[in-house]
């Protein structure tokens, strides 16, 4: 059974919990607590934490977007999902929420790097419309793993009335 998560914008007070998940997920190349704190508190970034409604202090996922004011490019800086919450749509929901925030900020393209040895994450990103645009050799250290650079266009938000759509497509009167 898939349970619904709730999201909220990450606060500086979430950094210790984020770091527990960061270190567990990225054992050899985790960010420093100082770097994470800077990201979470930066005006140019938008970080989310995910939790179950009955456990608001138990962070099961987080993700961050760098989207400076005035820029048309954004970058998904990091994303992690706790092992017990994986393969249930949480990573997808986090990414889609960040893309929505990018759209709100006027971003027209979002980039990310993914480990070349992480086919599960690559499949997720491709399923969301990301395309491979390059490789950064030896990017992830100390593991000496390449990064695949991916990009997705951020479509403008648009609203359609269901009745009008049916008429236009010949399904209504």
The H-level CATH homologous superfamily, spelled out, is Gcn5-related N-acetyltransferase (GNAT)
- Global Rg: 18 Å
What proportion of the residues is helical, as a percent range? 25-40%
Q: Note the overall shape.
A: globular
**What is the CATH fold-level name?**
Aminopeptidase
Across the major sheet, the strand order is 1-2-3-4-5-7-6
Reading the helices and strands in chain order gives EHHEEEHEHEEH
- The span between the termini is 40 Å
CATH architecture annotation name: 3-Layer(aba) Sandwich
How many domains, as an integer? Answer: 1
Q: What is the mean pLDDT?
A: 89
Report on the architecture of this protein.
The chain has 173 residues and is α+β, with helices and mostly antiparallel strands. The protein has one domain (5-168): Gcn5-related N-acetyltransferase (GNAT) (Aminopeptidase, 3-Layer(aba) Sandwich). It is built from 5 helices and 7 strands; from the N terminus they run βααβββαβαββα. It has helices at residues 15-25, 33-41, 90-104, 119-127, 162-168; strands at residues 5-9, 45-52, 61-66, 73-81, 109-115, 131-140, 145-153. A hairpin with an 8-residue loop joins strand 2 and strand 3 (61-66). The longest helix has 15 residues, at 90-104. The chain starts with a strand and ends in a 5-residue tail after the last helix. The mean pLDDT is 89.
Brief account:
By secondary structure, the chain is α+β, with helices and mostly antiparallel strands. It has one domain (5-168): Gcn5-related N-acetyltransferase (GNAT) (Aminopeptidase), CATH 3.40.630. Helices cover 29% and strands 31% of the residues.
